[in-house]
Structures are given as C-alpha cells and as structure tokens.
Amino acid sequence: MTDTQTDNITPNQQTCPRCEMSIHADAEFCKHCGAKVGEHRHVPWWHFHRLIYDWTLAWAYKPSASVALFILSFAESIIFPVPPDVLLMPLVLGNRRKWLRYWSICSIASIAGAVAAFLIGWLAWWAVQDFAFKWLGWSGLTEANFDTISLWFEKWNFWIVFLAGFTPLPFKVFNIFAGVFGTGPEVSSPLMFFVMFLTAATVSRSARFFLVSWMMHKFGAKITPFIDRYFNWLALLFGILLVGGFVMVKYIF
Questions:
Q1: Which of 30, 121, 124, 147 could bond 180 through an S-S bridge, CB–CB 3.0 to 4.6 Å?
Q2: Are 249 and 152 within 8 A, CB to CB?
Q3: Rounded CA separation 27/253 (Å)
Q4: Backbone dihedral angles phi then psi of residue 58, each to the nearest 5 degrees
Q5: Domain residue spans in the chain?
C-alpha cells in the first residue's frame, strides 16, 4: 500500500492484511477480497467440520497458497474430506486476474489425484480393503457402496464418473472403486475403461472448478461472508445433497 493510501485511512477504518485496501474498523470481512479480518467467534471443538474448513481456508492467506491448493486438490480426490473449492474461492477473490491460473492448478491436481486413486484401486485395493471398510467408512468406502457402485459402473461408467466429479457425490470413492472394477474380469478392455474414466474425470472436474472460479471472479467478495455466516446450514445442505445424490442415482440408474 502506498503512503497516500495510508494517509487516507481514517480512525474508523483499518487496512485489510491481504489486499491492503481500506475497510471499516468493525468489518469482519474485507469488502474487496473477502478475507477474514478482526475478531471472530470461537468455534467449539466438536464442530469438527467447521474446524477443518477454517484450517483449509487459512492457507489462502499464506505465500504457499498455490502449493496448498495443488496438494489439497490432489488429496481430496483420494481421501481428504474438504473439497478444494474452499481454498479455490478465496484465492480467486484475492487475485481475480489469476482466476484461470488457480482454476488450472486445481483442475490438474484433482485429475492427477483421481488417477492416483484409480491406481490404488487397481494395484493395492485388495491389500487395504479390510482397513478401508473398517476405518474409512466415513468417506464412503463401505462394502455396500462398493457393490452398488460396481453395478453403476457396469451400466453407466462414463456418466457415473462425470456425476461424481461435478456434484457433491464423494469423487474419491468412485475413483478408487473405478480402479477395482475397471481392471477386473467384468471389463473386457481395462485400457479403454481407463481412457473413459480419465476423460470423464477431466471434463467434470475442469467444468466444476471453472464454474467456481468464474463465479468468484465475476461476483466478487460477497459470497465468502455468506458462506462463513451460514456455514453450518450449508454443511447440512451439502450432506442432504450427498445422501440425495446417492438416492437419486440409485433410483435413476
């Protein structure tokens, strides 16, 4: 921030630590970039989903944010519970001119993670399935889902992967199970199945993150305070959409 900008700040204003623009002294969010400023309410330890969200969001205000976005996007396609959109949104808000760059990082990392999850399903699933079913059921890795998703792959392989990549359905689960099913005896050409899987993952994830990046680039800093204020309700809605998505796919397909 320039000396002129500093001189223009009045006693009832403060400077955003991220974009260095002037905002009201009592503001909780920067109206220019959406960054959190000032004091915020304490989050109880049992609000585990909110603590993970805040921890993820904090990376947006660090110099290594782009690296964190890549790692988060990669990990979310395999096991991490928080979608990369949480970090992608404030990064685009902080520097809207780089929205295509952040979209590219997020998309490439997520697709790479999907391939890694596919390889886990192909090469390591039978060695880790007991552990996964016992301890990772919270992520959707259950025996019931394994049987159900295998049937979906048999009938609607491309569209199932596309749906999981674009919606709140647990993308990671479909990636791992795709590696199991796509290299099993039910598939005549594992190579063609992998090409289909990679195409569906690339199209769906690229489209999803492009939409998120474009919306944050277009509509500015008004969305972040809304998410923060109504996070618990949005988390509940996300859970309903997740369960509803499974039910919808079950009855449609």
A1: 121
A2: yes
A3: 48
A4: -60, -25
A5: 1-40, 48-252
